[in-house]
Amino acid sequence: MVMPLLDAVDVGPLGGVRLGPDVICDGFRRDCTVRVQTHVHADHLHDFETSKGYQEIITSPGSYDLLVTAKNADLPYRRNFAAVPFGKSIRFGSSTITLLPTNHILGAAQVQVVVDDGRRLGYSGDFQWPMDSVISCDCLVLDSTHGSPRYQRQYRQDQVDSQLQELLLRQLRFGPVALRGHTGLLQRAITLLCGQASVPVFASDRTIKEYRVYEAHGYPPQELSAFPATTRFPGVGLVLLRMHERPPAFIDSNFTRITLSQYISDPREPLLRFSDKDFRVAMSDHAEFAGILEYVSAVAPKLVLTDNSRGGHAVELAREISVRLGIPAVPSTFSLNREWGG
Fold first, then answer.
1. 17 CB neighbour count, 10 Å cutoff
2. Which of 5, 27, 209, 246 is the most exposed place for a label (fewest CB within 10 A)?
3. CATH number for the domain including 162?
4. Tens of pLDDT along 15-61?
5. How many domains is the chain built from?
6. Domain Metallo-beta-lactamase, which positions (predicted)?
7. How far is CA 149 from CA 37, 126, 243, 341, in A?
8. In the listed set 282, 304, 323, which residue is the last one of a domain according to the structure?
9. CA 233 to CA 256: how far, in whole Å?
10. The domain spanning residue 126 has which CATH number?
11. What residues contact 271, with CB distance under 8 A and at least 6 apart?
12. Is there a single domain that holds both residue 103 and residue 186?
């Protein structure tokens, strides 16, 4: 039974995940009729424009709204781009697809595919643990970002939030702060300041629009202002920057710089201090090693394919799952071919 399951799934060179004959997640493949977009982080958006021209695209309502904000204006009018609520099943070809949330960022989804021949296939997507519900599948393609025993935190997420809140409030007493992070982490950080600080908060037009989407999906309201058109910052305030966004000209040596990291760099301490005005906070939105194993146990697949296209720990994670959980697990391999666009 293991080999037929393994033949049904694949991970491409850019991280696209094939689930059966019809479905590709976060990538483009010529022989798949539908793309499931699990979330909006850039490393999962490869070939999105190609998919728009050749495939049906489905995603969760939160990801739909974020993609409309981030991408070009034609998305709301495309007949092949649709939002599917979590828990609702939709059928394409011989596959029935169901999305469930992952607690990674707004809209991030696990993907469950049931093929007419009875095969049950799944993709974890990027995920944080714990979560309210998990997919049911026989073969699970698994994110391997923190797939090593080295990534076992000795602190809780609420302690990270508390330290970040304390750091922001303290540094804002002495001057302006530039806070840099990926989508999801920035929005979580904003909520820590709601009602706690009376300083103005500035952001790019895109970041402001993204936070309005988060508000529409239940996040607390926050007043945000566009970057001031000046080379000198007007006093105290918080400036929000996307991870790879070019900083405005007014950010100078008076600013404290805080970077929100997606990854666990020191399992003993989430806050790294480089100087009095330069910090990094491990505000990870990926499950740590123990959480990955708990997730796999909850899904209870017959076979696990660890994603070897990102993270660098797929081989180690496959070995640990096999030894610790007794579930057959192998890392993904790939080769360029016509279906993957090679």
1. 30
2. 246
3. 3.40.50
4. 999 999 999 999 999 999 999 999 999 999 999 999 999 999 999 99
5. 2
6. 36-150
7. 29, 18, 27, 35
8. 282
9. 13
10. 3.60.15.10
11. 163, 164, 167, 279, 280, 281, 282
12. no
What is the CB neighbour count within 10 angstroms for residue 287? 26
Rounded to 5 degrees, φ, ψ at 133 are -150, 150
Does residue 133 share a domain with residue 49?
Answer: yes
Q: Is residue 123 part of a domain?
A: yes
Residues 21 and 96 reside in one and the same domain = yes
Task: Give how far the C-alpha of residue 295 lies from the chain's centroid of Cα atoms, to the nearest Å.
Answer: 16
- The boundaries of the domain holding residue 261 are 157-282
34: number of Cβ within 10 Å: 22
Same structural domain, 209 and 127:
no
Asked whether residue 103 is domain-assigned, the answer is: yes
Taking the C-alpha atoms of residue 11 and residue 188, their distance in angstroms, rounded to an integer, is 30
Shared domain for 273 and 214, answered yes or no, is yes
* pLDDT tens-digit map of 259-292: 999 877 788 899 999 999 999 999 888 999 999 9
Helix (H, G, I), strand (E, B) or coil at 311: coil
The Cα–Cα gap between 51 and 119 comes to 25
- Helix axis angle, 205-216 relative to 185-193, nearest 10°? 80
d(C-alpha 76, C-alpha 90), whole Å: 19
SS3 160: helix
The pLDDT value recorded for residue 178 is 96
223 and 199 in contact (C-beta within 8 Å)? no
Distance CA 303, CA 2 (A): 7
User: Residues of the chain whose pLDDT is less than 50?
Assistant: 342
- The structure tokens listed for 148 are 């090593």
SS3 content of the chain, % helix, strand, coil (to 5): 25, 25, 50
